[in-house]
Write a structure and sequence with these properties.
Layout lengths: L7 H8 L2 H23 L4 H18 L5 H25 L6 H27 L21 E7 L4 H12 L8 E7 L4 H10 L2 E3 L7 H12 L4 E4 L5 E2 L3 H5 L1 H5 L3 E5 L3 E2 L4 H6 L10 H13 L10 E4 H7 L9 H11 L3 E4 L5 E3 L5 H21 L10 H13 L3 H17 L8 H23 L7 H22 L19 E2 L1 H27 L6 H23 L3 E2 L9 E2 L3 E6 L3 E10 L3 E6 L11 E6 L7 E10 L2 E6 L4 H12 L16 H13 L1 H5 L22 H8 L1
Parallel strand pairs: 1-2, 1-4, 2-3, 6-9, 7-10
Antiparallel strand pairs: 4-8, 5-10, 6-8, 11-12, 13-15, 14-15, 14-17, 15-16, 16-19, 17-18, 18-19
Helix pairs in contact: 2-4, 3-4, 3-18, 4-5, 4-18, 5-16, 5-17, 15-16, 15-19, 15-25, 17-19, 17-20, 17-21, 19-21, 20-21, 21-23
Length: about 725
Amino acid sequence: MTNQDVHLIERKYAKFPIGLRLLYLLLALVGVMAAAFVVITPFDLQSQAAFGIFTAILFFVVNRFQDRLATLIIVALSALVSTRYLWWRTTETLGFVDPFDMMFGYGLYAAELYAWIVLMIGYFQVLWPLERRPAKMPASVDEWPTVDVFVPTYNESLDVVKPSVLAAMAMDYPPDKFRVYILDDGRRPEFARFAEQAGCGYIIRQNNAHAKAGNINHALSITKGELVAIFDCDHVPTRAFLQMTVGWFLEDRKLGMLQTPHYFYSPDPFERNLGTFGRVPNEGQLFYGLIQPGNDFWNATFFCGSCAVLSREALTEIGGIAVETVTEDAHTSLRMHRRGWHTAYLRFPLAAGLATERLSIHIGQRMRWARGMIQIFRMDNPLLGRGLSFGQRICYLNAMMYFLFPLPRFVFLTAPVAYLLTSQNIIVASALMVMVYAGPHIFHTLGTQSRLYGRYRYSFWGEIYDNVLLFHIMAPTLLALINPKAGKFNVTAKGGILESEVYDLQVMRPLVALVMVLLGAIAIGIYRLNFTELFPGDTSVLLMNLFWCCYSAFSVLAALAVGLERRQVRTQPRIRIRQPVALYFDGRRSLMGRTEDLSLGGGMLRMDDLAEDMSIDEQVVINFEQIEGNSSVPARIIGVKGREVRLEFKPTSLDEERTIVSAVFGRADAWLGWDDRPPDTVGKSWADLIRAIRTLATVARRPKPRATPEREGQREPAAASDMPRAAAKAT
């Protein structure tokens, strides 16, 4: 890919002769007609079973090849099989007579229709991810644009904000070409003193109108840089951030925004509570690893609020950061697209931040995202209005439709309960017909998604994430659909500790109730199967619903395991870093070695020689050999074992703090291994979920679960420790 080929579809298509375009259109029409014929042709039980077996064999054959053509064939095959299933459900399984059957049956059908729409537009969105590379900067720095770097903050502690500001000021860019500003909506004197000491800009305003968006817009009105880089106050950029991103604005003069991944060097609540940090892709990996590159292909990259560079000209044209919704970032990029500006995505993590520590805070953040995306759907619907291409409309629509999942998800989890408890027949078909139609649909959906998403979202894990959010997302989305202007922006708290393990029963209470219903339905189903007289054909239907209900209970139990908040006593997460260092003792001797892990508070070293002559509490100086200039920092030895030495940093000046930040976060290649994980396998994912469920046994042995983890050792006020108040704030 050359730098000029930014948007491959539009540019390559424009070069095709009219005759070739017509030929491609004709072939596409023939393909659609053939697929439609396959979709609508009715089959009996044996023929449909044969069709399912044939498509499964075809999948296994094609799946052996790893090229993109094979991927396109597999996606087309999955779309064909799933559409045929939906056609069968629409034309042959909705003949209800009983009004209760009709209520449950149409509810399930509506959920399946939603799932099919999301599946199809999801395939479209990631059909051909664009692997964009950094654009080369001009040889003359005189041609480099000026950049204002904004670090918005409201109520976060200075300990959280300081590393981001120091790292931003250390970025490799001509000093006269960029300036860093703290945008302090908290108007705190200690932040003003720090800004003066560090030599960065400090901006406040008279009010907090429109929260973060208003804070940035106020700063835009009094700064003049050609480009604006924005970092959340806990996101620490590498030294290479600007040089890796700015070049695209010189390559494409209509580029309005370039986004990079949000990478988190600390585990989120799912990773910490389930012990999967570094082993299983986290909740955001799919979006930043695959969906954003897919969006980039369609010129539909979303602005995500941080770790991005924006054109001041583009922001001025659209009136600044959007303030009408609480997801001001995505709304801003949508407005840019409507005005003809391009956006881009660079799939290199060039900054790292703190993940949310508590599950309730994590859920509160997702509640805000859900409400904001539905607000955009209501107030600035991407399907309506001018200025968007077809691909852009589909990409935005998929992002918004995802947050409508709670009701369909609830229906899928509870649909078998209707039959097991009340014998309500929600699908007018025999169990065998359901299996031969639904079986291929489920098989191809799982297989295709594993091929497409396997590096970024392991099998079954999406259901765990959705189950945890299910009841908490439902209210904000429904409220936003009814009244999109209700609610206000809430800040996500960062930087806390937890002295002991606790189970957050307050957050998990709805799921506890749901799993009790599912287990009760399973017990009744087993009783009916063994002790009641069933009509012919009822046994197979009962078994099918029992299996379905058992799977629902399994996925909910796995989600319940996330509620066990693990002990967290380190205020600074450790990061695995290998770099050469030298230790100096009392000015007369030194010892060489390398780091094993580092944090802003200290680290563990492996020395070249035995360190047995060192003593606890001994004062030393550590020198980071790869950092230019004076890179020495005072430290205290807190542990020695063989060649391993554990240190606590004891900086005495701001320059020494800069050195620590550069050593921990500054390297250009710091986070390049962010998605190095083994490929997805169904068996491994299943085993991980079983392991998660086993952790619930530790909760069952406790005499009294505690429901408010934030009250245990939390340094900062959390964004609502109990979910009723969190829901009130988010909606």
